[in-house]
């Protein structure tokens, strides 16, 4: 037709243009061609089948005559058959092709290779093929079919496989961040980011919990959680382009795994900070790792009690760096305010002030020879954990030393009274052994028991004899004797041997004791046990929690008067500021019923009794 048109170009522009309805030889030819083309359906079907077959072959990677294909499709456009007869058939074939391809590839290739393939297919269909062959109006529907068949219909399967992979990886490589980016870009096109954010949140919860419940050491767990958080920040900021859905999802997931009761994060964090603050080298990065968990921690009241107990141990055993303690308290103060750290800061100041008072004490007793060289730490009541004083029969020299300090203290603070915590006291002694003298650091209670063997010619003492002479509590004495006769350094011999202490057991001084070490310390484990047993942690924390739960329940019931059990559980869980179980709330409801604040109603409901 192009050649014929060129031959009759003058005729086409003059006579045909002015005397015919078609207006041009080209239009007339197209009209005649369309009429005859439609008349012979078998010809149309062969042309259509040939075009669709060539498109399919090109999709599977075979080489086709692109110019021939291009001309045939343009012919359909010129005949006005593209939209009316070709496009629907083409789109139907496209849907079938990509449905089958998606089924096959999801079972045979890696999920990230699959995502790369999806991105390639979208580009091929919506950019390259539309540019080369199809009408621009086809682009939107064509791209929609490819994305629906390869992506939208399979989004749960794809996300499940993606996050299963991320769950199994200990540490991301650079390529893993690119995988997240590709996933984000593809799902953004099909408006599926919301479901991706949910999968991401679930992944953060699961992965974080698996780290905390693992068998790694406390130190390693915190390092792994810190690395996990940094990794997630990188994913959200760069791979997910700072999308708010993922920012919120990361926060929710992190809050969840840190505060899940079964993960014991509060105790884990307390152990970690205790280990870090016992180091002689200050490392602010380690403190910041602790603060990451602290910021997310909801049970800060329980952590405060644990931290306070461990702080007491570090200060009294002198196994901490004061500057590091102040740094950590300063960080917590920024997060929670002065009210949270006030007592703990007071504990550190007590130790510092005690050193200044000891200088004054020595100046006050200048010229007086004390029976013992003593060093006293003054602990302000209310700052420190509560300790139960241990009754003990002090040797005369110890008693005189305490009285000397009492007299000095009264000159400084007339209206104050000192209570001596003998169970927390430490003594340095020198022991003379046939195999070599040793300098040994003991608790005061260990020292008093050991001195009983120094003040008599008797070869041995029974448990009952030691109990009468020391006047110690029986359980305290059992712990002390175990530490002296059944542990690594056996300063005493026990008859019969064994860890179980009985009233009839006999103890004697171990003259054959020997160790390569010239100086021994037997206080750390023993004093830690004393501090832990006397600090009354659990009772204080649980009592405070019970009071808060009771107050929340009463407040809810006052406003509602009557409420179902399920409603009360949901409301209470949402209001309390720490993790709480349904069983704990149920227990407090029963207590309030017994106290006649609430009355049980029909259909598992409760009524508030004014």
From TrEMBL:
Keywords, alphabetical: Ubl conjugation
A Gene Ontology term for the protein's cellular component: cullin-RING ubiquitin ligase complex
SMART domains listed in its UniProt record: CULLIN, Cullin_Nedd8
Pfam families tied to this protein: Cullin, Cullin_AB, Cullin_Nedd8
Residue stretches making up the Cullin family profile domain: 264-485
Single annotated GO MF: ubiquitin protein ligase binding
One biological process term in Gene Ontology: ubiquitin-dependent protein catabolic process
Alphabetized Gene3D superfamilies for the sequence: Cullin Repeats, Cullin, Chain C, Domain 2, Winged helix-like DNA-binding domain superfamily/Winged helix DNA-binding domain
TM stretches of this protein: none
UniProt-listed InterPro entries: Cullin, Cullin-like_AB, Cullin_CS, Cullin_homology, Cullin_homology_sf, Cullin_N, Cullin_neddylation_domain, Cullin_repeat-like_dom_sf
Record-stated family: Belongs to the cullin family.
Protein name: Cullin family profile domain-containing protein
């Amino acid at each position: 037709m192009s050649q014929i048109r060129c031959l009759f170009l003058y005729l086409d522009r003059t006579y045909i243009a002015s005397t015919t309805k078609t207006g041009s030889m080209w239009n007339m030819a197209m009209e005649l061609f369309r009429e005859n083309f439609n008349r012979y359906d078998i010809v149309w079907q062969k042309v259509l089948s040939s075009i669709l077959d060539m498109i399919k072959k090109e999709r599977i990677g075979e080489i086709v005559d692109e110019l021939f294909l291009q001309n045939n499709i343009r012919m359909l456009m010129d005949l006005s058959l593209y939209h009316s007869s070709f496009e629907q058939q083409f789109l139907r074939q496209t849907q079938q092709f990509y449905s089958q391809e998606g089924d096959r590839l999801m079972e045979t290739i890696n999920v990230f290779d699959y995502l790369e393939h999806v991105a390639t297919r979208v580009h091929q269909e919506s950019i390259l093929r539309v540019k080369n062959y199809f009408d621009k109006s086809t682009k939107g529907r064509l791209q929609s079919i490819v994305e629906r068949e390869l992506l939208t219909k399979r989004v749960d399967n794809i996300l499940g496989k993606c996050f299963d992979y991320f769950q199994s990886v200990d540490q991301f490589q650079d390529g893993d961040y690119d995988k997240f980016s590709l996933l984000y870009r593809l799902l953004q096109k099909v408006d599926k980011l919301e479901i991706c954010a949910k999968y991401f949140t679930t992944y953060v919860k699961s992965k974080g919990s698996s780290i905390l419940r693992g068998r790694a050491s406390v130190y390693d767990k915190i390092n792994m959680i810190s690395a996990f958080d940094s990794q997630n920040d990188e994913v959200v900021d760069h791979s997910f382009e700072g999308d708010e859905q993922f920012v919120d999802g990361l926060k929710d997931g992190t809050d969840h795994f840190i505060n899940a009761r079964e993960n014991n994060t509060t105790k884990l964090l307390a152990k970690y900070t205790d280990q870090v603050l016992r180091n002689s080298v200050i490392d602010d990065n380690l403190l910041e790792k602790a603060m990451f968990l602290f910021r997310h921690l909801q049970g800060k009241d329980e952590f405060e009690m644990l931290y306070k107990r461990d702080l007491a141990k570090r200060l009294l055993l002198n196994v901490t760096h004061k500057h590091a303690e102040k740094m950590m308290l300063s960080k917590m103060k920024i997060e929670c305010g002065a009210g949270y750290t006030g007592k703990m800061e007071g504990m550190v100041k007590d130790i510092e002030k005690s050193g200044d008072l000891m200088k004054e004490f020595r100046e006050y007793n200048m010229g007086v020879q004390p029976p013992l060289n003593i060093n006293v730490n003054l602990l302000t009541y209310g700052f420190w954990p509560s300790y139960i004083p241990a009754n003990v029969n002090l040797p005369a020299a110890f008693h005189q030393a305490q009285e000397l300090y009492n007299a000095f203290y009264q000159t400084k603070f007339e209206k104050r009274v000192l209570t001596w915590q003998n169970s927390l006291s430490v003594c340095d002694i020198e022991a003379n052994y046939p195999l070599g003298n040793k300098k040994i650091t003991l608790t005061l209670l260990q020292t008093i028991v050991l001195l009983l063997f120094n003040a008599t010619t008797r070869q041995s003492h029974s448990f009952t004899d030691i109990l009468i002479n020391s006047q110690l509590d029986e359980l305290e004495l059992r712990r002390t004797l175990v530490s002296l006769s059944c542990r690594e350094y056996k300063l005493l011999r026990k008859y019969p041997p064994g860890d179980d202490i009985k009233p009839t057991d006999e103890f004697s001084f171990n003259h054959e004791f020997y160790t390569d070490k010239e100086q021994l310390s037997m206080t750390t484990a023993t004093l830690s046990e004393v501090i832990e047993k006397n600090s009354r942690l659990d009772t204080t924390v649980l009592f405070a929690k019970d009071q808060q739960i009771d107050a929340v329940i009463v407040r809810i019931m006052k406003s509602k008067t009557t409420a179902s059990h399920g409603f009360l559980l949901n409301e209470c869980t949402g209001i309390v500021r720490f993790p709480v179980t349904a069983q704990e709330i149920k227990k407090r409801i029963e207590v309030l019923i017994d106290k006649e604040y609430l009355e049980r109603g029909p259909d598992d409901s409760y009524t508030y009794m004014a």
